[in-house]
Amino acid sequence: MIGSPAPDRSRAPACAVVACFDWLEARWEGVRVRHFVASLLVVGFLLGLFVIELGRRGLLPQSVAASVPRSHFPAIELAFYLLLSFEVVGLVFGISHSISNAAGKQLEIFSLIQLRHAFEVFANLDEPLRWEQLRFRVLEMLANSAGAVAIFVLIGLYYRLQRHQPAPGDPRDRRAFIVAKKAIALGLLTVFTVVGLRSVVSHALRFERPHDFFEQFYTLLIFADILVVLLSLRYSSTFQVVFRNSGLAVATVLLRIALSAPPYVNTALGIAAALLALTLTAAYNAFTPRALAEAAGDGRPGNPEGT
Fold this sequence. Notes:
This protein has helices spanning about 10-30, 30-55, 60-65, 75-95, 100-125, 130-135, 140-160, 170-205, 210-230, 240-260, 265-300. By secondary structure, it is mainly alpha-helical. The longest helix is centred in the last third of the chain and has 34 residues, at about 265-300.
């Protein structure tokens, strides 16, 4: 119609990213998907036990039986692996909402990995379990379990300190920053799917534990965190905001190192990462409100995220 404004085609890619992300997130957070995931975990666990039992009774082809473990405990690892994979998807979706909450989700996943490590102690042991086999591994199991509990407690304190308050600044900047984070999350989700499928194909048939999968993902998270920090500079010049986001990226680096570290060291690094995130949050809450108010008074952009 004459006189009607021309559509802004420059916003079309951003709208497509937002629409795609929101559609995927709505489906993932839905009740049906949650029930499906829970059912898949149960089926995967029972199927693992069933296949292992068939192998123990000599009912599998020789080519398959050679790669199936003799102990039932790897079925627990399989269930944890599936659980962690689904938790990772939730982490990817959380990146668009809050950098601080996404960091907390990373710590949650690492604490579950620590619990999985505790079960790995049994993976290569014969059944029935005997103390002679366990006595040199019990301390390692206790360290992993205690580390998971310590991180669990620190995560609770970390979330309790969170203050999600709207910050001063241009609403358009906040929307643009959210769109950018959703684009990053979609990229991570795509890479996660490709790497995950490749890992499943290469390891599932051989019944091996894909240890390197989460190491690869946390490596990707480091680059994603740095990218978010750099993007945030376009919308916020407040030192406290940049420092907080950069510090949380360092916590991700510590978690990535912990995944490759030997027993006991990995637990210490995980706890150190949780303490770093907790300390950063406490300091951020103590000093940032005044800094944001001063930034607003000077006409400088505040925290585009509001967290």
